[in-house]
Amino acid sequence: MSDLLAGVLAALISTNAPAATSNLLRQETGLSIEIPNPNDPVEKEFRNVLAQDDAAVEEVEKWADTANAAAAGDTHAQITLRLRVRQRLEEVKKDYQDFLQLHPDYVRALLAYGSFLNQSGDADAARVQWEKARQLAPNNPAAWDNLGTLYEEGDVKKSFEYFSKAIELDPSQAVYYHNLAAAVYLFRQEAADYWKISDQQVYDKSLGLYQKALKLAPADFVLATDYAECFYGINPPRWQDGLAAWKECLKIARDDVERQGVYIHLARIHLLLSNFDDARRDLDAVTNAIYFKLKSRISRNIDDAIQSVLTNGPPQPLR
Fold first, then answer.
1. Which of these ranges, 27-31, 57-61, 139-143, 230-234, has the smallest mean pLDDT?
2. How far is Cα 58 from Cα 92, in angstroms, rounded to an integer?
């Protein structure tokens, strides 16, 4: 998705998330959990709705790419694009509404439409669809998980409950562990109160959930980096564990941009451990211009740390 498209959609829907694509919907709503009969007429009709969703997103991306290339900075062109995108998204919305008017209890469609609404900035309407899906299919973990994401704003403890229920219903899905791990880490005080555990036990719980997710999805780079980033916020620090986590990220980085981003983090951790030579080595591996500002900052921090050692003597390495 182009930067312009992301910006246009953000402006249209007033959220941090771009408009939904059906591929993303299938991932987020857990539509693959139940395997419907592809020859079922209703399922065929529903898949047509998803196909229309795909087609709409492809169209919008092409519009945005064209506008980005031909009219960058042209306010009129961007306003025109916003109107076209709004109209196209309304068509997708109507496809879902028409389908659900005929098949109001089709759980897969309720889940998908809820995600469309949520990513279009209408969380209240999304909750209605997902709650109906949960009531119709209380053993469908995707409904619980999706609702858990909504309750992170306003009712975090209910979010814990719903994410935990999703895991209970299907412990084979990494995304459910990931969502609960992130919620526990972000809302540490609420987690401590909910489970009646100490601050250190909250960290352990979050990291343990991340580790379970990684066992299920060992090649998921985003999951691995989310886990590794947790070590920046743990107090007292666990830098050696953080270093090991970033080394695992390096193994599964999907391209050179991701690898060099990991080297930036490795350099930071080595610096925190007073491993200055290792930090320099990692920085030397960073050659992409998008990281030069960070690289320069870390390089200065290494120089300052070395100077401090020369002046005051070596510090005890952080553990």
1. 27-31
2. 13
- Indicate the Cα dihedral angle 137, 141, 147, 153, nearest 10°: 160
Tokens 């991701």 found at? 258
Per the CB < 8 A criterion, the answer to whether 49 and 103 are in contact is no
Contacts of 301 (CB under 8 A, 6+ apart): 271
Q: Are 147 and 131 in contact (CB under 8 A)?
A: yes
Express each pLDDT in 174-224 by its tens digit. 999 999 999 999 999 999 999 999 999 999 999 999 999 999 999 999 999
Q: What is the pLDDT of residue 108?
A: 93
CB 237 within 8 A of CB 231: yes
Q: Please state, in angstroms and rounded to a whole number, the distance separating the CA atoms of residues 109 and 119.
A: 15
Could you tell me the pTM of the whole model? 0.82
According to the model, what pLDDT value does residue 67 have? 66
Portion of the chain with pLDDT greater than 90, in percent: 67
Structural Rg of the chain based on CA atoms = 23
Per-residue exposure over 34-67, b if at least 16 CB sit within 10 Å of its own CB, e if not? eeeeeeeeeeeebeebbebbeebbeebeebbeeb
316, pLDDT greater than 70: no
Is the per-residue pLDDT at 292 higher than 80? yes
Chain position carrying tokens 């898949």? 47
Strand, helix or coil at 274? coil
Pair 200, 178: CB distance under 8 Å: no
Q: Which two tokens stand for residue 113?
A: 């439409």
Cβ neighbours of 136 (radius 10 Å): 14
Q: What are the structure tokens assigned to 170, written together?
A: 């299907």
